[in-house]
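Order emerges. As here.
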Amino acid sequence: MTFRLALSNQKGGVGKTTVAINVAGALNARGNDVLFVDLDPQGHGTEGLGLADAYDAAPPSLFDVLLDLDARPHINDLVYEHEEFDVVPSNVDMFSAEPKLTTAMRSRERLSMALDELDHDYEFVVVDCPPSLGNLTDNALLACRNLLIPALAEGTSIRALEILFDQVETLEQGYGVDIDDVGLVANRVETDGEAVEMMDWFEDTFEGRIPVWEVRKRVALKRAWNEGVSIFTHHEECDMERAFLDVAAHLEEVAR
C-alpha cells in the first residue's frame, strides 16, 4: 500500500521544498519507488528538480486534474521521469486553483481522488504543499493523512506550528479522519543562541510524540538544488545526508 506524505508549514522561507526533495531523494536512495507531487503554485519543487519547462507547459496540468473531475485519470499523463524519482510538476495555472476550488464540490478531496487514479503502485508519494493554509494544503493533508513538518530553529516557528496544528485538528474533526504527525525537520540550523534554544524547545515539546531531526545549513544542499537533484545524486558529499536518511528510515518504519 502506498504511503502518502505531505510536507507543510504555512510559514514561508523555511526551506520546505528543499526538505521535500531531499526526503524523496533519501527514500529513493534506500531503494523505494517514489512519486513527488508539487502542489505549490509557485513551482519551486518543479524548478528544483530541473523541470522548469513543465511549469509553463500547455494543459492538461495538475490544475486540470484538480478542477475537472473527468480529468482525474490524466494525472498519469503528467508524470515525468526524473533520474531519482517520478514527478508530477506544478504549473503556472495552479495560481487559479485556490479560488476555483472554493466553490467546487468535494473541494478538499480532489487530490485524494486524483492520486487514487494512479496506474503505478508507488511505495511513497511525497507532496510538497504551498506555504499557506487553504484548499490546496487541505487537499494534501486529507489525501496523505501523514504530515512531516519542516521548520526553522527560530522563535517565530512556535506560533506557526500552533496555527498548523489547529488547522490539522479542524480537518480531523470536520472529516472524521486522523492526520498523523510523523516528525519535524529543523532546517537550516545555525550555531547561534536562538537556534540552540529552539532545538531544546523542539525536543522538549515533541519528546515522546514525534522525532525531531536537525538539518544544518550547508551550501551543498543549494548546489544540489541548482543541479535539479537531491543531495544524494549531487556530486558533493554532505554530512546532512545522514539526517535525511534517518528521516527516510523512520518513514519506512511508520509505513509498515
User: Anything to note?
Assistant: The CA atoms of residues 23 and 88 lie 16 Å apart. Strands lie at 3-7, 34-38, 80-81, 86-88, 124-128, 146-152, 180-189, 212-216. The mean pLDDT is 94.
